[in-house]
Write a sequence for this structure.
């Protein structure tokens, strides 16, 4: 798949929001759904979700960020990379970022890209606000009278028949087209008129170099089966929770049964049973460490138990997210 220039230049100003670069870890790297709520973190959060091997593969890869809902171009790019077609796409950033591993149609792949071409381009930060009151005719231009390069740039953003005004964004221009523009780098007109009710005051607030790169993608098969991949992870990481006291079993039962698992609100004391349970995780392998996530560098003797684990409990495998605020040891000098 070679996406055409007209469509891809439009990506330039919005790639940071639409691409997958916001990911900071693999899969669900948080401490459970409940602990992710807005506000102060709970003193303890312990959640256990029953999982299959295929679900383990989904959670330990970037798969959940490859749904591409409403983004057909990116979905097609990944599909063609998997098919071995070495697809190309253009953007100021990669339309789809490299992925260490992801599940696609029941198998596990790694996605990589290389820049094979680059053209100079500039991203202009602009505002487009309602132009109220009287307007000097010399400062206004009818939309249809704008140079072709400006109209095409606006059309890619859906602004040929704009529905509202009053926002700031960025627009990407190839450097060899800037001379043709009446709007950048310095607007020749300060007001754009679509009709009598739709008049926008256009202002350029800044700019920066944003080369339009051509990226070529490749996908490497890592495992023919997502379930097999998940099984390998489980065999490396899973450990049995057994020999629990009654109060610890109660906490585990709540971690499994309650919507957001077992939590201790911020500011409350963590029960001894919860701290004792957490201690059982200190020497265990965090799932993301096991699949290649960068090591946290924790002290092997007294490491934090916080993390994500695979736990076997009463014959079932659970994806287990744990966070417990460590007790501070105070001294006379502290």
């Amino acid at each position: 798949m070679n996406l055409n220039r007209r469509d891809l230049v439009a990506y330039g100003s919005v790639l940071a929001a639409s691409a997958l670069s916001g990911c900071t870890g693999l899969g669900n790297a948080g401490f459970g759904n409940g602990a992710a709520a807005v506000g102060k973190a709970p003193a303890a959060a312990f959640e256990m979700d029953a999982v299959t091997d295929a679900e383990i593969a989904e959670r330990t890869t970037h798969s959940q960020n490859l749904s591409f809902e409403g983004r057909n171009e990116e979905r097609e790019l990944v599909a063609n990379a998997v098919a071995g077609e070495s697809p190309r796409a253009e953007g100021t950033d990669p339309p789809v970022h490299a992925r260490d591993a992801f599940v696609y149609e029941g198998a596990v792949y790694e996605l990589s890209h290389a820049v094979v071409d680059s053209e100079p381009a500039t991203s202009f930060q602009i505002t487009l606000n309602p132009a109220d009151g009287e307007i000097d005719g010399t400062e206004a231009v009818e939309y249809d009278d704008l140079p072709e390069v400006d109209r095409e740039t606006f059309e890619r953003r859906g602004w040929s028949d704009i529905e509202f005004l009053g926002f700031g964004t960025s627009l990407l221009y190839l450097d060899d087209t800037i001379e043709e523009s009446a709007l950048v780098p310095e607007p020749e007109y300060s007001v754009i008129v679509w009709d009598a009710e739709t008049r926008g005051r256009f202002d350029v607030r800044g700019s920066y170099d944003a080369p339009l790169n051509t990226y070529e993608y490749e996908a490497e098969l890592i495992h023919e089966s997502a379930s097999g991949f998940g099984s390998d992870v489980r065999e490396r990481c899973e450990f049995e929770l057994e020999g629990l006291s009654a109060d610890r079993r109660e906490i585990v039962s709540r971690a499994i049964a309650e919507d957001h698992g077992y939590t201790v609100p911020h500011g409350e004391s963590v029960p001894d049973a919860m701290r004792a349970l957490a201690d059982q995780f200190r020497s265990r392998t965090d799932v993301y460490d096991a699949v290649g996530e960068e090591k946290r560098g924790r002290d092997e003797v007294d490491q934090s138990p916080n993390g994500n684990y695979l736990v076997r409990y009463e014959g079932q495998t659970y994806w287990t997210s744990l966070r417990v605020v460590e007790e501070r040891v105070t001294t006379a000098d502290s």
Residues 225-324 form one domain. The chain has a mean pLDDT of 83. Residues 6 and 291 are 40 Å apart (CA to CA). The first helix runs from residue 5 to 9.
